[in-house]
Amino acid sequence: MATFVGSPCWARLRSIGEITLAHPPMLRHSSPLRLRSIAVPLPRRCFAVAASAASDGPVRVRFAPSPTGNLHVGGARTALFNYLFARSKGGKFVLRIEDTDLERSTKESEEAVLQDLSWLGLDWDEGPGNGGDYGPYWQSERNSLYKEHTQRLLESGHVYRCFCSNEELEKMKEIAKLKQLPPVYTGRWATATEEEVQEELAKGTPFTYRFRVPKEGSLKISDLIRGEVSWNLDTLGDFVIMRSNGQPVYNFCVTVDDVTMAISHVIRAEEHLPNTLRQALIYKALGFPMPYFAHVSLILAPDRSKLSKRHGATSVGQFKEMGYLPQAMVNYLALLGWGDGTENEFFTLEQLVEKFTIERVNKSGAIFDSTKLRWMNGQHLRAIPSEALTGLIGQHWKSTCTLKESDGPFVEEAVQLLKDGIDLIPDSDKALTNLLAYPLHATLTSSEGKVVVEDKLPEVSASLIAAYDSGELIGALEEGHAGWQKWVKGFGKSLKRKGKTLFMPLRVLLTGKLHGPDMGASVLLLYKAGKYDVVAPEAGFVTLDERFNMLKQINWESVNQDQTLLEPTATLSN
């Protein structure tokens, strides 16, 4: 909804009754829209007074990125909200490429944006690769439409040719600045005669097309997220819609595109809110209904400044490379400014479509919390079916030369043991190499290890070495988890130890660490890693044989002397 309020000459037009405006040929497949108070073409100085739009036809939304760089998380969230709104309403999600910035637009950026959207699962109904009835879907291929509508506005008097030079325009800005006035256009071409215009055309003087803005009144819109927003028209001034080189200006392109693509709802970032004034004036001048507008809040950094590269990763591609899952990114982006009214924070894309409403989008800025995103990724990672998760992590281990193979019993058991400590796929490297490492000396000589060493650890070590050399421990490991449990119970009885006094020294001697995942499962994995030769040489794996050889060589008196001199070490935990 948009309303123009102005001078008495505009007010007289409010009594125009309800009429039906049939769509022009370019608005295919849309029902006629019923409008109230549509202004007829007016004399140049008496512009439209009131306009309102009602979209009774199908829901059609669009995401219109500029291919001048990577897809920012803010743009991805805008695309997601458009997608969710369209799917929840049974409408169409249109992808339009705004590539009129010829100097900065690249095919590589365009392809990257398309890949990122596809990776997120935001499939578009119309646009590049899919076609549609409202193409072309690249602005650079729609120049004929822009010129056609510019001519319409020129003939109706809403636009005029401006022959001002850059020097003249700069002088106007300087004068306005000195007078502390808005930098509005005050050139003579708004009131030039036809003879003056023809004279400049005959000389070949370059010109732009300027939109004639009413000098009084205001514009008020009802934003679906922000509520009522209004602007005074006297702060705007006549603005350019077509440059002297024939290239249309952004606000004009967007308006013509949205009109000719029958867009019913424009959901975009709040930084575009000021553009709405110019676009509404163009809609009104062309005689078309405005879509509904919904301006989404910005995504902010933890310091509440606008999220930028100085805060770390900001593009979808970067998060993809870091190992984030698309379903986690979608879930997290949806919660930046939206919620379903419950405490639930875990949503699949399908659930988001079911729950999403534009009314629950918050107009306050949303803080991007990378720690929470990582946590959420871990939740989605562990929700992946076991077989698929094993495949993902196994392939990663092989690709990073941690393991020689990507599947098999060892990989399956390792994933199940370590997955609770993995939030990102790349985390699995550290989790596995920590398990395979044996930082025994650092643990024994740390302050945390002092209590364990002083609890007769040398005696436990001697008994453990004897059990290994006799084949008793290996036999138990061959029998799997049940064999390990039976052996531990018997080993504890022989030493008259149980609970922490048994398991802590065993963990230190067998894994080289004070903390870590389940000890029995860890030792079984270490045994299998050595038996089946699945670990790549680069992983730094210390086999059980090598561990027991190290235990046999320990000078416990030397350990007792060293431990009071050393501080805790970061290699203690798995």
TrEMBL record:
<dbReference type="GO" id="GO:0004818">
    <property type="term" value="F:glutamate-tRNA ligase activity"/>
</dbReference>
<dbReference type="InterPro" id="IPR014729">
    <property type="entry name" value="Rossmann-like_a/b/a_fold"/>
</dbReference>
<protein>
    <recommendedName>
        <fullName>Glutamate--tRNA ligase, chloroplastic/mitochondrial</fullName>
        <ecNumber>6.1.1.17</ecNumber>
    </recommendedName>
</protein>
<dbReference type="GO" id="GO:0005524">
    <property type="term" value="F:ATP binding"/>
</dbReference>
<dbReference type="GO" id="GO:0009507">
    <property type="term" value="C:chloroplast"/>
</dbReference>
<dbReference type="GO" id="GO:0005739">
    <property type="term" value="C:mitochondrion"/>
</dbReference>
<dbReference type="Pfam" id="PF00749">
    <property type="entry name" value="tRNA-synt_1c"/>
</dbReference>
<dbReference type="InterPro" id="IPR008925">
    <property type="entry name" value="aa_tRNA-synth_I_cd-bd_sf"/>
</dbReference>
<dbReference type="GO" id="GO:0006424">
    <property type="term" value="P:glutamyl-tRNA aminoacylation"/>
</dbReference>
<keyword id="KW-0496">Mitochondrion</keyword>
<keyword id="KW-0547">Nucleotide-binding</keyword>
<dbReference type="InterPro" id="IPR004527">
    <property type="entry name" value="Glu-tRNA-ligase_bac/mito"/>
</dbReference>
<dbReference type="GO" id="GO:0000049">
    <property type="term" value="F:tRNA binding"/>
</dbReference>
<keyword id="KW-0067">ATP-binding</keyword>
<dbReference type="InterPro" id="IPR000924">
    <property type="entry name" value="Glu/Gln-tRNA-synth"/>
</dbReference>
<dbReference type="InterPro" id="IPR001412">
    <property type="entry name" value="aa-tRNA-synth_I_CS"/>
</dbReference>
<keyword id="KW-0150">Chloroplast</keyword>
<dbReference type="GO" id="GO:0009791">
    <property type="term" value="P:post-embryonic development"/>
</dbReference>
<keyword id="KW-0934">Plastid</keyword>
<dbReference type="InterPro" id="IPR049940">
    <property type="entry name" value="GluQ/Sye"/>
</dbReference>
<feature type="domain" description="Glutamyl/glutaminyl-tRNA synthetase class Ib catalytic">
    <location>
        <begin position="59"/>
        <end position="375"/>
    </location>
</feature>
<dbReference type="InterPro" id="IPR045462">
    <property type="entry name" value="aa-tRNA-synth_I_cd-bd"/>
</dbReference>
<dbReference type="GO" id="GO:0008270">
    <property type="term" value="F:zinc ion binding"/>
</dbReference>
<comment type="similarity">
    <text>Belongs to the class-I aminoacyl-tRNA synthetase family. Glutamate--tRNA ligase type 1 subfamily.</text>
</comment>
<dbReference type="InterPro" id="IPR020751">
    <property type="entry name" value="aa-tRNA-synth_I_codon-bd_sub2"/>
</dbReference>
<keyword id="KW-0648">Protein biosynthesis</keyword>
<feature type="domain" description="Aminoacyl-tRNA synthetase class I anticodon-binding">
    <location>
        <begin position="407"/>
        <end position="526"/>
    </location>
</feature>
<keyword id="KW-0436">Ligase</keyword>
<keyword id="KW-0809">Transit peptide</keyword>
<dbReference type="InterPro" id="IPR033910">
    <property type="entry name" value="GluRS_core"/>
</dbReference>
<dbReference type="Pfam" id="PF19269">
    <property type="entry name" value="Anticodon_2"/>
</dbReference>
<comment type="function">
    <text>Catalyzes the attachment of glutamate to tRNA(Glu) in a two-step reaction: glutamate is first activated by ATP to form Glu-AMP and then transferred to the acceptor end of tRNA(Glu).</text>
</comment>
<dbReference type="InterPro" id="IPR020058">
    <property type="entry name" value="Glu/Gln-tRNA-synth_Ib_cat-dom"/>
</dbReference>
<dbReference type="GO" id="GO:0048608">
    <property type="term" value="P:reproductive structure development"/>
</dbReference>
<keyword id="KW-0030">Aminoacyl-tRNA synthetase</keyword>
